[in-house]
């Protein structure tokens, strides 16, 4: 019945089995009485001490089916009535009491929580272990210490609490076995021991034929040489049974020396197994009642039976209560429809009917009033399933603890607790109802309802085919009730709730406050079924031996004992019953339910199951919080399920890993929808435990590799170095002296601290001047820790995403690819880890570079291993930093978000630098792979280029063998081919970094000469403005694209070139290339006339732009060559700028020194040969003071400035520049003196005008106009036209400068303008300007006439006539005026 195998055996005779030797049979007496054996021949009885639990706490073992003894048994089934014969069976050795006391009870803990434990008791007969397929049921009697199991053919009795796995048991072959397997199972009960015996007897009733067999003592019945009735028992039958009537219940009425039988017809009968003299004898007497069709068996009919049963309901239960009077007991029967009957039964079967009442409506009304859920269920579905008497004689404190009324000592009242149900198609609602029956002689109502206690934790319908009906138990001290069903047992508190305002409000509103409820479920297995049960009660004051025998099983707290077919005997024992009535009673929490499933559900052979919620439902948030808390407890080995001692740490960790996995399988089975954050936190906790196991194995590996004198690995060093506030300290007083093991048992939740400390250990040891060999070993071990721990964490994460409900997450390299919103920072990317793994990579690389040799004979094994670990450790580091940056960037904390940007930059930098670093240790292939994984194509290009260069260098090494040369050449060729493949695979994303590195490392020649690709090289050069000087060469040499080369040169010269000489060359070459390309016949032939016209127009415009730029460059070159170069050629080295400033600077008041700064900046650019932009060159030309000795070597400076404006500026910008040029030219003279003509003749005035810069400017303008050398139509502006320029806004150069600087420039411009206006208003500048222009044009005309007369074949003046061409002013040297 209680095992997992079924087997066959030989036919078993009806004689009971025994281990005793045969004795001479005694003659059978005529009165069928039994002569008891003499005392000296009696067997040693089963004493209280034998069954006592040991004082020490029993050990709990894994839940595994005990391997049954392979004895010959017969599968219980239907047998013909056999011929009696004797049979011997093996019997277990009787263990002495002293031995039992010294050992544990052998029970296996199946489940535990704050309220109760569930244990599997070891004692089980071998026959029951082997027989799990037959129909059987039974009962447990704690008063005798025995359990009874009945099948169709056998009855088995055994001491259920014995510590032996195969206890001494008694098997009885039934003399009248059932004829069909579908027949009702025999009913039986243990008979209290007689005065001459210490062990109980047994009575068995065949339900259909009424046959009764009685064995007076199970111990004496095993003696084969007793009389025949002792072998086969005393037999008899029930007289007066109707046809079709059957016995359905048997109840012990111990104080009345008999049993109460209930029949399917509703009748009840008293069964006696002894006569008036105490001798065995079977007799029955039916009780007077309206439940059945007749009394004492007369005039009954089956039709009457059926009609009565239909109206009143089947008998649900019959129970008896001991009376204070000797030889009496009270018997109560309850029908399923709520009819109650009570008798007082005397020894011998005499009885008195006390009360008979239909309480259905009273019970139903009370339930519906107190329970709103039951009120919604159909009233006709009300059923009474079972009841029990409320124990009397308790101390007052226990009565106050219970919701039940204090039991009356009067026997005229029957204090009952009923188990009722209401149901519909959706489920069942069970309720406990307190009922008090008053006798017919009482003035009170026959039935009174007290406590109503709905059961919310269980709503499964009872199985109509179950081998045992639902049972209700109320053990002393009336605080906890046990409800036993076919596959579950409910533990329900009926303790008084603590007084509180809330409880008072609930009571006033007829709402029942919640109290403790929990369910113990069996697995879904055809062999598993609760087929019998009983209870164990504590000995409490008021319950003494005077009321009956002292129970053999002495329990400290109430317990229910279940007989489970296919499993064994289970005991549900409360841990502290009084706690249920305390201020803080036990609660069923999500964590408690999860704990049970995790720590006991992992055992495959546990008959209990923990994934059924019934009515105990918790929210997803409660389950999530419970799962997290339990997960942390598992990591830290906190709680009663863990020990601080682990002989094998790896086994301890593996068990805890299983617990974490069980959390998730349990969550899934309960269909709990955890939030995303909780799922990730649970997975991260599991990763830590997995990594702990990996590190522990590494520690053992390190230890085995270390010399005997140095067994302390880096793992032990790390634990020792971790600060005390970052780990739990072992308690030496409790024997916890192994700090390393203690950390792996208690501190795994701080794994990120452990891993980060690996580098710190090396740092501290290096400062302590540790020898190189030891330091090498530490560096290697640290590299192993970083690589294996974090890498295995990522692998574990990827492998368990589905288990943790994260299968839909987008992952890469073991980390989340995106969406870190709301998630805490993953432990694998803790900033400490990110920082220290980076340091470890750098340290290991440097150490390998210093100590690694390519020569196999000179290699250090640990250095070589470290070198091999570098690529993996580098990839781990990059993944950690990438995960950290993503996590921080998604944070709502501004500081973290800022740090996230920093880490993102570090990742971008290090995914190149750290990968390239692998080249220094010749980890070429690994570096290539990591570069591809992290999409660091610049690093990929660099590594390949460096490897190819290294191979080519090796080929140049003299003295290489032909084989070596061939090998190196093949390898280099293969790498070059790999580069070409990457060009195809990655395109410009790889090509551009490749050419970048090639150019920066090996120069222009290597870039232009590389012939592995043309497409991307040209594309690269053309997209790099700074390489335009190389790009145009490639256009001509590599692409033969002169047109694009011209575009490149012109674009470079016109827009980007800063050096004036380069700009001049580039523009000249570009112009030449453009002219050459346009003149090619092939290019013209391929175009239509319209295209030719369009292109010609465009080319003309571009050539014009080139000419204008070249004209501006010519002005700058003229200024430098004719004015600056002569001065700096005689200056000391380093003094050039100072000398030039002193020579050419215009005198400007200090208040407006901003103009001097503008001049100095322009002059500095000129000295550096930078190409000046038009506005800067105009400033320089209009602010410079040219010395007389060099002034004549260049055209007029203001004319040059005007030429720059016309060639380099357009639109309003050119107009403003013109006005500025004319204003500064007007301000070059002191018009105050010129306007004062007092005492001056005409020649003197004309001579003074001829010395002014304005006169020279007019002369040059007019001469150029006359010669036609310059196509520009220069305007002559009057002083009034140029006033106000740049006094409100400045040119584009100053737009982005700070406001203070712009204000200073504007102030200087206004100062210039004020001076101009003063000359206009007070010194007649408008008129003087006109006079000066007139005389200048006359002088130019005069010069042309003289030249023509002289017949000189002169070309037009260089840029204007100047004073060398005007005789009238030949000796004049114009003096510079002031602003």
TrEMBL record:
Residues 682-1330 form the Nucleoporin Nup133/Nup155-like C-terminal domain. Its main location: nucleus. This is Nucleoporin. Pfam families: Nucleoporin_C, Nucleoporin_N. Keywords: mRNA transport, Nucleus, Protein transport, Translocation, Transport. Residues 116-571 form the Nucleoporin Nup133/Nup155-like N-terminal domain. GO terms for biological process: poly(A)+ mRNA export from nucleus; protein import into nucleus; transcription-dependent tethering of RNA polymerase II gene DNA at nuclear periphery. It is found in: Nucleus envelope. Residues 1-107, 1346-1379 are annotated as: Disordered. InterPro entries: Nucleoporin_Nup133/Nup155_C (IPR007187), Nucleoporin_Nup133/Nup155_N (IPR014908), Nup133-like (IPR037624), WD40/YVTN_repeat-like_dom_sf (IPR015943). GO terms for cellular component: nuclear pore outer ring. It comes from Daldinia eschscholtzii.
């Amino acid at each position: 019945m209680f095992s997992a195998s079924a087997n066959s055996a030989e036919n078993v005779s009806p004689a009971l089995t025994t281990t005793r030797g045969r004795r001479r049979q005694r003659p059978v007496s005529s009165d069928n009485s039994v002569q008891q054996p003499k005392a000296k021949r009696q067997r040693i009885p089963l004493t209280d001490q034998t069954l006592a639990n040991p004082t020490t706490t029993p050990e709990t073992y894994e839940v595994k089916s005990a391997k049954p003894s392979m004895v010959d048994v017969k599968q219980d089934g239907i047998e013909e009535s056999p011929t009696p014969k004797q049979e011997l069976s093996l019997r277990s050795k009787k263990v002495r009491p002293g031995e039992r006391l010294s050992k544990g009870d052998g029970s296996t803990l199946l489940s535990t929580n704050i309220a109760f434990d569930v244990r599997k008791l070891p004692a089980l007969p071998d026959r029951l272990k082997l027989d799990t397929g037959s129909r059987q049921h039974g009962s447990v009697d704690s008063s005798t210490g025995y359990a009874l199991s009945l099948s169709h053919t056998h009855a088995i009795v055994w001491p259920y609490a014995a510590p032996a796995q195969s206890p001494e048991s008694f098997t009885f072959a039934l003399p009248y076995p059932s004829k069909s397997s579908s027949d009702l199972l025999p009913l039986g009960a243990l008979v209290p021991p007689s005065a001459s015996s210490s062990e109980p007897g047994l009575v068995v009733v065949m339900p259909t034929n009424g046959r009764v067999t009685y064995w007076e003592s199970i111990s004496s019945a095993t003696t084969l040489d007793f009389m025949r009735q002792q072998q086969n028992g005393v037999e008899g039958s029930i007289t007066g049974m109707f046809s079709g009537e059957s016995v359905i219940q048997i109840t012990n009425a111990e104080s009345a020396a008999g049993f109460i039988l209930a029949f399917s017809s509703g009748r009840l009968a008293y069964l006696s197994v002894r006569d008036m003299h105490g001798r065995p004898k079977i007799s029955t007497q039916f009780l007077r009642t309206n439940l059945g069709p007749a009394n004492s068996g007369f005039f009954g009919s089956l039709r009457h039976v059926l009609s009565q049963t239909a109206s009143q309901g089947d008998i649900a239960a019959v129970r008896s209560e001991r009376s204070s009077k000797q030889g009496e007991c009270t018997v109560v029967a309850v029908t399923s429809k709520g009819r109650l009957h009570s008798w007082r039964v005397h020894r011998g079967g005499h009885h008195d009917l006390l009360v008979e009442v239909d309480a259905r409506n009273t019970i139903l009304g009370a339930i519906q009033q107190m329970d709103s859920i039951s009120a919604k269920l159909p009233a006709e579905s009300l059923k009474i399933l079972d009841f029990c008497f409320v124990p009397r004689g308790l101390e007052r404190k226990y009565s106050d603890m219970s919701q039940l009324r204090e039991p009356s000592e009067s026997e005229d009242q029957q204090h009952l607790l009923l188990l009722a149900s209401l149901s519909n198609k959706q489920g069942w609602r069970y309720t406990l109802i307190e009922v008090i029956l008053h006798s017919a002689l009482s003035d009170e109502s026959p039935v009174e309802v007290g406590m109503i206690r709905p059961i919310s934790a269980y709503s499964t319908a009872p199985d109509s085919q179950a081998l045992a009906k639902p049972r209700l138990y109320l053990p002393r001290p009336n605080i906890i009730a046990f409800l036993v069903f076919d596959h579950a047992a409910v533990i329900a508190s009926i303790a008084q709730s603590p007084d509180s305002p809330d409880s008072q409000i609930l009571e006033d509103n007829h709402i029942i406050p919640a109290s403790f409820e929990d369910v113990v479920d069996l697995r879904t297995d055809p062999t598993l079924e609760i087929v019998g049960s009983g209870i164990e009660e504590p000995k409490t004051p008021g319950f003494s031996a005077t009321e009956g025998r002292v129970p053999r099983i002495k329990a400290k707290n109430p317990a229910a004992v279940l007989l489970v077919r296919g499993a064994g005997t289970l005991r549900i024992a409360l841990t502290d019953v009084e706690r249920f009535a305390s201020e803080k009673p036990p609660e069923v929490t999500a964590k408690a339910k999860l704990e049970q499933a995790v720590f006991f559900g992992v055992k495959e052979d546990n008959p209990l199951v923990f994934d059924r919620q019934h009515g105990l439902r918790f929210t997803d948030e409660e389950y999530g919080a419970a799962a997290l808390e339990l997960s942390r407890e598992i990591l830290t080995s906190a709680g009663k399920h863990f020990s601080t001692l682990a002989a094998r740490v790896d086994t301890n960790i593996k068990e805890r890993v299983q617990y974490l996995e069980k959390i998730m399988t349990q969550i899934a089975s309960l269909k709990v929808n955890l939030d995303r954050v909780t799922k990730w936190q649970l997975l991260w906790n599991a990763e830590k435990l997995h990594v702990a196991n990996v590190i522990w194995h590494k520690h053992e590996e390190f230890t085995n590799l270390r010399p005997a004198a140095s067994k302390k690995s880096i793992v032990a060093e790390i634990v020792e170095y971790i600060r005390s506030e970052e780990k739990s300290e072992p308690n030496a007083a409790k024997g916890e002296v192994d700090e390393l093991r203690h950390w792996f048992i208690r501190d795994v939740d701080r794994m990120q601290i452990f891993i980060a400390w690996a580098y710190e250990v090396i740092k501290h040891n290096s400062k302590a001047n540790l020898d190189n060999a030891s330091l090498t070993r530490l560096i290697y071990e640290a590299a192993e820790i970083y690589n294996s721990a974090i890498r295995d964490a990522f692998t574990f994460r990827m492998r368990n995403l589905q288990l943790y409900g994260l299968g839909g997450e987008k992952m890469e390299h073991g980390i989340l690819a995106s969406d870190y919103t709301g998630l805490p920072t993953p432990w694998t990317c803790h900033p400490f880890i990110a920082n220290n793994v980076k340091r470890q990579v750098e340290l290991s690389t440097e150490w390998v570079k210093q100590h690694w040799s390519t020569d196999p004979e000179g290699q250090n094994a640990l250095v070589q291993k470290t070198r091999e670990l570098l690529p993996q450790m580098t990839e781990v580091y990059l993944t950690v930093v990438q995960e950290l940056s993503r996590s921080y960037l998604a944070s709502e904390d501004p500081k973290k978000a800022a740090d996230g940007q920093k880490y993102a930059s570090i990742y971008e930098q290090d995914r190149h630098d750290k990968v390239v670093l692998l080249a220094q240790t010749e980890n070429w292939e690994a570096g290539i792979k990591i570069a591809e994984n992290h999409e660091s194509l610049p690093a990929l290009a660099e590594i390949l280029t460096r490897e190819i260069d290294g191979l080519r260098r090796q080929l140049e090494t003299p003295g290489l063998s032909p084989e070596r040369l061939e090998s190196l050449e093949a390898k280099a060729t293969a790498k070059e081919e790999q580069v070409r493949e990457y060009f195809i695979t990655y395109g410009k994303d790889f090509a551009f970094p490749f050419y970048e590195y090639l150019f920066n490392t090996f120069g222009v020649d290597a870039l232009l000469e590389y012939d592995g690709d043309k497409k991307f090289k040209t594309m690269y050069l053309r997209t790099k403005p700074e390489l335009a000087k190389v790009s145009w060469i490639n256009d001509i040499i590599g692409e033969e694209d002169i047109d694009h080369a011209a575009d490149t040169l012109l674009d470079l010269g016109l827009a980007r070139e800063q050096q004036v000489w380069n700009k001049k060359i580039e523009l000249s070459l570009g112009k030449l290339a453009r002219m050459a390309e346009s003149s090619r016949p092939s290019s013209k032939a391929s175009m239509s006339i319209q295209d030719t016209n369009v292109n010609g127009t465009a080319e003309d415009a571009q050539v014009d732009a080139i000419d204008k730029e070249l004209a501006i460059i010519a002005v700058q070159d003229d200024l430098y060559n004719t004015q600056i170069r002569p001065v700096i050629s005689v200056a000391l080295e380093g003094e050039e700028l100072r000398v030039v400033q002193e020579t050419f600077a215009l005198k400007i008041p200090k208040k407006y020194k901003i103009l001097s700064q503008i001049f100095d900046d322009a002059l500095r650019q000129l000295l550096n040969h930078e190409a000046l932009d038009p506005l800067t060159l105009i400033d320089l030309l209009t602010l410079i003071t040219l010395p007389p000795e060099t002034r004549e070597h260049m055209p007029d400076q203001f004319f040059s400035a005007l030429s720059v404006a016309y060639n380099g500026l357009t639109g309003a910008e050119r107009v403003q520049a013109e006005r500025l040029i004319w204003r500064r030219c007007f301000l070059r003279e002191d018009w105050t003196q010129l306007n004062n003509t007092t005492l001056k003749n005409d020649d003197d005035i004309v001579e003074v005008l001829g010395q002014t810069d304005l006169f020279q400017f007019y002369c040059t303008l007019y001469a150029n106009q006359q010669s036609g050398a310059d196509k520009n139509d220069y305007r002559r502006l009057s002083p009034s036209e140029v006033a106000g320029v740049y006094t409100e806004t400045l040119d584009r150069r100053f737009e982005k400068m700070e406001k203070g600087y712009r204000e200073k420039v504007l102030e200087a411009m206004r100062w210039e303008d004020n001076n101009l206006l003063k000359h206009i208003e007070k010194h007649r500048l408008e008129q003087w300007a006109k006079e000066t222009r007139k005389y200048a044009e006359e002088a130019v005309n005069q010069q042309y006439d003289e030249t023509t007369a002289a017949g000189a074949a002169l070309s037009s003046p260089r840029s204007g006539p100047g004073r060398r061409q005007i005789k009238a002013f030949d000796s004049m040297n114009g003096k510079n005026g002031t602003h």
